[in-house]
Write a structure and sequence with these properties.
Length: 192
Amino acid sequence: MKKIAVWLCLLFSGALLAQSGPNNHWLQAFEDSSELFSIDGYRLFRYRSPTPPSHDQAETLSTVQLLELQKTTPKPVLLDVQPLIWKNGLFIEKEPRLHIPGSIWTPNVGQGELDPAWETYFRHNLEKLTANNPDFPVVIYCTADCWMSWNAVKRAAQWGYSQLYWYRDGSDGWQEADQVLVKGKPEPFTLE
């Protein structure tokens, strides 16, 4: 029985190598992009990987454009959705989160599948920060190459928010542009 299992593994490995070709890594045979997304189009895993250059449901901002947008009235809400470990009813920070001054940090709301409590947390904070006005400008970001912000924009658009901006470069791009970052504090995970 053991010989059959080893033979099947070798046969399977050979098939993968043949599919991947001489210039490709063998893991590419497993990288079917349709498996990375839910039926609704949310990214489900590998959140820290290259993102599209733009978002269909938001205006994508450069750092210069974000700086200009911050001078407008009303001043947009800056929503940081960088994930954070949630354990035993507490956010666990391994290191400080540095983000754009004036940002509100709502961790974990950019996951591809949200538990009902996290969805309520996200909706509640959006409603509170925009005074329940779906036309209020909202800038959503996390770090560069982070699908969490992409998912959060998609979710906010699905809920009817119409003035959405995606700062694709996130806190990394802000820092690279020699802009000041400040220590963030996550919004309490409450549903009040």
